[in-house]
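Could someone model copper (II) ion with this protein?
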Amino acid sequence: MSTRRRVLGWLGAVGGLVVLPAAGFAGYLYADSGRSNVGTLTFRNRLRIPPILPPTVAADGVRRFRLTLAAGRTELLPGTTTNTWGANGPILGPTLRASRGDRVSVDVRNNLPETTSLHWHGMHLPARMDGGPHQPIEPGVTWRPSWTIEQRAATLWYHPHLHRSTAAHVYRGVAGLFIVDDDPAVRLPTEYGVDDVPLIVQDRRIADDGTLDESDLTFGGLTITGLLGDKILVNGTYDPYVEVLTERVRLRLLNGCNARILYVGFTDDREFTLVATDAGLLSSPQPLRRLLLSPGERAEIVVEFRAGESVVLRGFPAPLRANPLYGRLAGGSDTHDLIKMTAAGVLRPSPPVPAELTPASPAPTVTRPEPFRLEMGDFLLNGATMDPARIDRVTRTGSVEVWEVANGQSIPHNLHVHGASFHVLGVDGAPPAPESRGEKDTVYVPPGSVVRLAVRFLQHSDVRTPYMFHCHVLAHEDAGMMGQFLTVSAQDEPSVPVTLDAGHAQHGG
Ligand code: C2O
Ligand code: CU
Ligand code: CU
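Reply:
Sure, complex below.
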């Protein structure tokens, strides 16, 4: 395995422009890439809509949600059952929903056979509520984080985050949405599951007997990204369709894949309107025909339909900006139909997308001008793998820093930062693509490029519990492509320790 990796490193070093040693080797390289499911689907299964989980509201006003993580069985391929994991059900989990200003708490009960954790991806909350590797939940235990929603409307999500087990636990099916609502002044479709439809897109490898193939979950050999599946699930539905009942539909897209970078568009190349990215609405809508979404990223789009038509949402070959070999190995040549959208004979009218979505937010003012340089090596960050005791960065509460993220290697990576949101200042000096504008928490970092971010940190000070930053290709994250930072107030700064009490964080499943 390590020999193969060295070979790959060498191939990458010469930019993929190599004479491959033998035709057989070339065939091996290509056999598992350039895949397509086009023509294999019949779009026969109605899209599952994750139910909204009603909280109980106690006398103190706290909205309490209850999630139970457990193993179950799901019919994915027709006539077979697959062992899957889920929250409050056999696969995926319900949608949690709360408004800015709400106080929420979640009882996360782990009935799984392994220790796990549950992370609120994109949520602005204290580090010890974050659900990362420092908040493991052992089997039979209930973890009870609570916090106040203090961010604008956005499509967030939750998933396990135990170091070295994240890829497997997400792959088996634990994931769900957390929708944050805010002032409803913007006129966008809002009827959940009707004209405001979540689409959690995930790829899986499923054997004919229904068994979930976990063989390539970690990287190694020619598996440079971890597992890329050929079966697409949307909200845990294989071969899905969704009925359209209104002239306009808002789709909340989440790339919930372990590794696959999606380049989303419609088979008739129709234009759609991007209205929100990871952390909320854009200031103005952006017309687009294609949208790049790396693992962990979200995008909200509004699509117009004519009565009686149908169209397929597809993942097209993605412009990964990798060399041809690594582009293919990372799935950049693949084409996958995701879901068919079928419009009813008569559509209810929908309001047009407003020209202004939210007052343009002023570019964040950088408070610490010297950039934090982050070198993404292949499976390393700044030359090191994740160490739960190491503090990679200390940030000041409420500060804005420039993070300069460089992928000097050949493998596609992305970067996700917890406990913060950021604006992309530029990619190799050029302004970001529309899907990388607005407030974000995850961004694609193409091979050979430098992405500059203005990262705004939260107000929660904690000298003991770090937030994580990492590549969201889960095999890379599990391999240690993750670092951690503390956010501390001026008063707390003198008590920052040299190392952290790593506790349980280093133990995987
Ligand atoms: Cu979506 Cu650190 O994770
Ligand atoms: Cu996160
Ligand atoms: Cu990576």
